[in-house]
Each structure stands twice: as structure tokens, then as C-alpha cells.
Design a protein that fits this description.
24 helices, 49% helix, binds adenosine-5'-diphosphate, binds magnesium ion
Length: 698
Amino acid sequence: MKTVPEYFGSMVFDDRVMKANLPAKVYQSLRKTIDEGAQLDIRVANAVAAAMKDWAVSKGATHYTHWFQPLTGVTAEKHDSFIAPSPDGGVIMEFSGKELVRGEPDASSFPSGGLRATFEARGYTAWDPTSYAFIKGKTLCIPTAFCSYGGEALDKKTPLLRSMEALNKQALRILRLFGNDTAKCVRSSVGPEQEYFLITKEMYDQRPDLRFTGRTLFGAKPPKGQEMDDHYFGVIKPRVAAFMEELNDELWKLGILAKTEHNEVAPAQHELAPIYTTTNIATDHNQLTMEIMQKVAAKHGLVCLLHEKPFAGVNGSGKHNNWSIATDSGQNLLSPGETPFENAQFLLFLCAVIKAVDDYQDLLRLSVATAGNDHRLGANEAPPAVVSIFLGDELTAVLEAIENDTPYQDAEKTQMKLGVNVLPKFNRDTTDRNRTSPFAFTGNKFEFRMLGSSNSIACANIMLNSAVAESLKVYADRLEGAEDFETALHAMIQKTIKDHKRIIFNGNGYDGSWIQEATEKRGLLNYRTTPDCMPHLLDKKNVDMLTGQGVYSEAELKSRCEIMLDNYCKTVVIEANTMVDMAKTQIAPAVEAYAADVAKAAAAKKGLDSALVCSYETGLVRKLSALLDRIAAKADELEDALLALHQAEDVQAESVMIRDSILGLMGELRLACDESETLTAKKYWPFPTYADLLFGVK
Ligand code: ADP
Ligand code: MG
């Protein structure tokens, strides 16, 4: 059997393969493109394509695809085989540089949010050489960006790459000011921790809600939930362990650094964390991870639920986006340094993040907004919908001392003027942890915890990179023109702390009093739902920043806002339709059948002895009948409300109607159905219950 180092990355056209299979000159020129973004010559592309094809064919591949991330949130691929006819009637395997670099999938069926009306229907894909090609099944997958012919991004990778470039440019300006002349580039890196549920395929198949919407729309609370906390980090069940083992193998073959796995808080909930890597690669890898989780689960007779809130009353699933920025030589710019000089630079980058998160709370919030995640944010296990930063006591004390020009800790040792020579030395704070903060500093990185488990991490990182690039730009503009660097630096850090300290909160984010303080005293935003936050994508300050940083054009932003709201509406409408259908065709008939049988039993008893009262049966039938009336009435009301959506003028108006009418009615219908479940004999119930689903995997 092969050891992990022997098969790790065996399905990836990575640096090792390139070095071994490309002529030295071609390799060097490709490396220059990968490392520094240099333009790629078509001759180089031809040579790379030929080597890629030979390698892929030797691994059994027959097809290739440009693999991209349209705005549907999942990945897309269109397979072409390598075959080309040869004169003797046979075929040869061919793949040209042109085919590698550019593809032309038909763009017309992907969401474009109006871009299609304004621009051409055709789109093209362009190779992203910074993310390695890989083989999935029998297909060579080439990571690509997806644009319209006018150059408008139709995907998530294009703006992500642009945001990384924006951050690179501004961070390098700052590093030069600190005398760093050697860094060639600065990149953000991400380690996304992925949560998910595993349930049996057999039970999944019996639930239309899971099949159509990815979450349960009905289900009374099970007698046992997560209250015992006995699942978290608990012993992994054999079937789950077998799944994890195969998952790791598949991910490792694809060069994905799957590292940690454990049971999560809720029953049937688990987590997988990879080792961090460059943001665009981490994004590709996370998309692949989610896809492979589902495939491997199917092989084990399981279904992997990536929905943010598959079960009401049980913890939802998130994705913790661990984010930092580093130079090409590996210096982490969010790591407190050894010397005061390094610490001054660290503090500036830290301030850039603080300012960015405060200035663009709305963008961070909306970058994770989906119908699914709305159930999670603000519920009692996930971070609230209010964005704030956790820094820990030590760092907060340092910032306070700088703000107030007061001594930090020991006055004799340190003077808190932020001349680079006198900044106190402090070490990374490893002791305190805060699990309730949406945006927590964890020593040398920030952990953005608002992402939902099914979110592509692209959106959050686009906003994070762009917002931090904007802070750095403001700083660089000022510092480059400063007469005295140290004085200007001190003044700027101090001003950032004064202006933006409201965003720092080290307390319990789950506490109701925090929401009150955040919104009433501190003026922080609290956008609870997708319709609340999404339209702010088009606020002038946000459009100015994102277009100014070259990350989005205004047309692209409008299209994205439209697509996200449309996605929200469609998701909820499908859920509501599924509810009506299940209530009318499954739940009501089951309750009716049970009530009828109980009534029959009572009648039979009375037939035997007319003096019998049968108050149990009578009471139960009465309750069930009342519930049936409620179910029917609520289902009708919901149907009417769904019909009324057609009157909405546009997608934004529709999303508001959904928030204000549909969601409430869905809740009421569910309540009546769940109450019926608790009164109906188990054998009448038409699908597996919460207890079955959550404790079904042995
Ligand atoms: P924690 O205990 O806070 O969860 P871990 O060390 O387990 O911290 O890391 C969690 C995730 O953060 C992992 O995916 C890890 O690779 C990632 N990570 C660690 N350092 C960095 C960094 N500098 N940049 C981005 N992600 C990082
Ligand atoms: Mg963590």
C-alpha cells in the first residue's frame, strides 16, 4: 500500500510534475506567471498544454474541462475529449495551448443578473495558472475564470483574483515604507473549517424537504438533542470513520491539505479543517472538498448535508474563514513581531483590518447572506448578524494605551508613544479564545465566523481583501507624503483606534444585551436578513470602494445584487412550495388516518359497552381535528401569499414580501404540523423524524 506522501497530490499537475515534465525555459516562464502574474506566451502555453495532456492521459484521463465557479455558487464544467482524428482512421490525443488558455462555454444559461441583456450572451473561460490543474474521474480539470465577452466577470474567481491583486498592490506600498525592498508580492491566505451533517441515504430519500431544499422544513424536537454535549469531539462512529478515511484519501490525491476532523456539537455533525493556503487555491479546494464530501458520502450510503441549518433547534453549520496576509517570503503580516519595529508594522496592518471591518461591516455581512445562513446568524449558536472584532485583552490594552497616550502595563519599561523605537514588545496572545465573536483575532490571523457551511468562501474573501486594501491605500497615501514617518505613523494609528474602536468587542456576542449596546450605543449595523443587507451592496460608499480598488465594475455589482436576491427568493419559494405539498399530501393525510382510526376504536368500544366515556380518544380526536383545520388553513394562506408574490415589481420588492409574509406563514404551518407529530402514533408518520435522522448513523 502506498503511504500518504507517495500519493499526496498524485492527481494534481503541481510544481513537482511541472518541473519534471516541462523544458527548463518553459518551466521558468510559467513560474514567473504563477508567482508574479507575468503575461504568458502562447508558445509556453502550447508546451504546458502538451505536457499536461501527456501527464493526464498517463493517469487515464480522456477528457478535459475548464472548471469554473459561476454565480450559482457551485462549480461548472463542460467536458471535451482529447481525441482528434488521425489520417489512418484512428485517433490521437490532442490539447493545444489555445484550448488550455481559453474556452467558450455557452454563458446564456448561467445567472448574469442583467449583464446578459447589456452584453453578449457568449462568455469565455480563462486559465488561472495560479491554481493547479487536477484530474477528477477521467477528466483533466483546468481552474478558470469566467467572463462575458465585454470582460464582465460572470463568476466568483475573477473578482477574487482582482481583490488579491488590490491587496497586493497596497500592502507592498506599506512594506516599502517600512524599508522592505525585497518582498515581491503579498497574498492573503485562508484555512476554511468546514462543518457538515451526515445522515443515512435511506432516510434522506424519504424526506422531500431534504431532497428539494437541503433542510428539514418540519420536525418536532427529539427527546434528546445536543444538550448533553456528548457528541463534541466524541468518539467517531465506525461508519463515519470509514467515510472520513476515504474522504481524506480523495482530498489528498487532489493535493488538498485535509488536516483535522472531529465530531461537532450537534449529533450527526462533523467538521473538516484543511491547512491554510493562498486564498484563490483555498477557494478552489473548498469547492472541491464540498463536492467530494457529497460523492464519498453517497458511496457509504450516507448523505452529506452542507445546508447552514438542516435542523431547527439544533446547531447549524458554519464555515470558519481563517484569514491572514503574508509576503512571498512567508512573513505573516498579522503576526506580532519580535522587535518594536516589527510591532509597529504589525500594528499598522492590524489597524488596517480594524478600519476595514468597521467601514465595511455591511459588505462583510452581505458577503455571507443567503436564505440558509439567515437561519443561523443571530440564532443562539452562531455569531450574531452584528459584525464586531474580538482582539483579546492584551492587544486591546495596547491599543487603549496608544489611544490615550498612557503607559502600557509598566510605565517605567514602556512609554506609549508609537515611535517605532519605543513601542512595547508584546507577544501573540494565545491564551484567550472567544467563540462568540464573528471576527476574532487568533494570534496571527483573523477568524471570520459568519460564513455559512454551503457558502463559497470567495465572496467573504473578496470583501475582506478589498476593504483591507482600501485601508492600506488610505494609509499609504498619507504616509508616503509625510514629512516625518514616525510621527505620521503614530498619529494615524491613534486616529484609527479613536475612530474605529466601537467595532472592538471582547465580550459574549451571544448575549442579548450586546445587540442592544451594539446598535443603540455604538451605532453598529444589525442586518438580520438577506433582504435587509443585500441592497447595501449598491450604496455609494461601497460602489466607490469596490470600483476604486478595481474589484468590480458598477454593472457587475448591480448584477450580483440582483442574482443574490433572486437566489434568496427562489430558495424560499421552493421551500414554501415543498411545505405546502408535504403538509397537504403527506402530513394531513397521516394525521387524518390516525384520527379516523382512533375514532373508530372509540366507536368500537362504545359498541361493546355504551356506558364507556372514551374521553382519551375523544379528546385526542378533537385535538387532531383542530390541528388538521389549522394545517389546512395555514397551507391555503401560504399558497395565497405565494401567489401574491407575482405582484412584486422587482426582485428586491419580492424579497421584502418574502421576509415579511412568507417566512412567518411557513413558521405557523410548521408549528401546526410539528404539534401534530407529537400527537400522532409513530407508525402513521409519513417520514423519518428528527430522532431517526440525527441518531440514525451507527
Ligand atoms: P484554531 O485552534 O483557532 O482552530 P488552528 O491552528 O486549528 O486554530 O487553525 C484553524 C485553521 O486556521 C486551519 O485551517 C489552519 O490551517 C488555519 N490557519 C493557521 N494559520 C493561518 C494563517 N496564517 N493564515 C490563514 N489560516 C491559518
Ligand atoms: Mg477555529
